[in-house]
Amino acid sequence: MATPLILDCDPGHDDALAILLAVADPAVDLLAVTTVAGNQTVDKCTLNARRVLSLAGVTSVPVARGADRPLARELRIADDVHGGTGLDGPTFTGTPAVPESELSAHDLLVDILSRTPATIVATGALTNIAQLLMESPEAAANITEIVWMGGSTGRGNIAPLAEANAYVDPEAAEVVVDSGIPFTMCGLNVTHQALVTDDVLARLERIGTPLARVCGEWMTYFASTYRKVFGFESPPLHDPVAVARVIDPAIVHCVEANLIIETAGDWTAGATVVDLDGYTGRRPNARIAVELDREAFWDKIIGAVAALG
Ligand code: BDR
Ligand code: CA
Q: What is the pTM (predicted TM-score) of this model?
């Protein structure tokens, strides 16, 4: 049976591909897309989520707007990486066919989770999920697992020791990790194994559909900013790694370890302190992704884009 899934995201180029993978793969049943401020304002991220689903011709998945700012900090957007729209590259005009839900992300999450258990994949700051846990614990008790693209077992990408999704809202990440709900972290250490190489771009191009062409243009834009900002030859497709973990756990190998979110450090707020070697003596509270089966991962991505026609 397909795993019921809710995708909480801030599209975002890699979020866009995460949405397409979640919509297309038969191993998961995408119940909703909820949005959060992060890569761009929540207005722009919500419009982008609607745009991605519309381009894929999927009108049955509701899109609901979530938090417009972190729990306790100023919002820091990533327009240097994702551009002024949050999804720069190809130009779109007009209103996407997929409307915004009348429900807020919180209310839609409560509505779905009060009817069915579901896995949440989160590919942005964890603000919406933390708010759900704090405001609606009964509904949140129906979350089967949270699989997050965020954090890192090593260095960061927005501060020396903090990855962007963790850095934007460390207080929310702490609430979620401390909730006791099964938690899997797919951090930079594993997403940097998912590089959009020229070979991947060529495979996308060979699909030959309008959607594949748009994906190629998104990836080309993403490659240009990753080259400029980080000096990467090919950009890492972070967010779909978390979706792939739910689709087939064998694609993303994890180990159990203790995870602490640093919120108080003078220079390390948003650091994800992963005790892979047992130094702290604290018991494991998370699954930590450490290795990606690259071939299987890219087959899933290419297969998803091709399947959407
Ligand atoms: C994460 O930050 C965002 O820019 C990406 O969409 C991804 O979720 C990578 O650090
Ligand atoms: Ca994201």
A: 0.98
